[in-house]
Design goal:
199 residues; 49% helix; disordered C terminus
């Protein structure tokens, strides 16, 4: 059984902050950045360096997370995931006076080799909260710890590259229909997922 990796909305926000912040290599620790005065923070974050990855989609669940990312430099994905996980584990250990590992084992990565795989992976990621019964499919965009809000809203994120997936759709309505089309199937797959993946 997977244990929770978040305990509060504040923890969720901190995790997502790390996803955004650590895309760029060479940045100071997120905790140091957050302790700076607001005016200094804006200057620091605007100093873009070498991006390790581009975030194409993400979801944070109570006991795991999924990322769809494009590597921009050699070892970019493994470096990025390691930094994000270590930073968040350090935050949780300090906040809750705990010790030891927060995440179980190494992360699992699958290479995306086709446009079809890309769009179906985005659907899998974005339907996670629906399949888990956290939100109803009609309110899926209200789950705050997912990139879906930027796929279904006319506002665009500056750090989630929604155009990679949305370029295959005629807008957010068509993408939503694409998601809703497979909700039932995804729920059934979720019920037998333990048979398909090594824990």
């Amino acid at each position: 059984m997977k244990l929770p990796i978040v305990r509060s909305k504040y923890d969720c926000a901190r995790f997502v902050q790390g996803l955004e912040y650590y895309r760029v290599s060479g940045r100071k620790k997120l905790s140091e950045y957050l302790n700076e005065k607001k005016s200094n923070r804006e200057e620091t974050v605007s100093e873009e360096g070498n991006e390790l990855v581009e975030i194409l989609a993400y979801v944070l669940m109570p006991n795991h997370y999924h990322l769809m990312i494009r590597q921009l430099v050699e070892e970019g994905i493994s470096t990025y995931v390691r930094i994000v996980a270590n930073s968040y584990a350090h935050y949780m250990n300090k906040r809750y006076d705990r010790g030891g590992a927060l995440f179980q084992g190494n992360f699992k990565a699958v290479e995306v080799n086709s446009d079809e795989q890309l769009i179906h992976l985005s659907r899998y990621i974005h339907l996670n909260p629906v399949v888990a019964g956290i939100v109803h499919e009609k309110e899926m965009e209200e789950y705050p710890w997912s990139s879906l809000v930027w796929f279904l809203d006319s506002r665009r994120s500056s750090w989630v590259k929604v155009s990679e997936v949305m370029g295959f759709f005629r807008g957010s309505r068509e993408y939503r229909e694409f998601l809703e089309d497979q909700v039932g199937y995804s729920r059934e797959m979720g019920k037998i997922g333990y048979l398909l993946l090594d824990e």
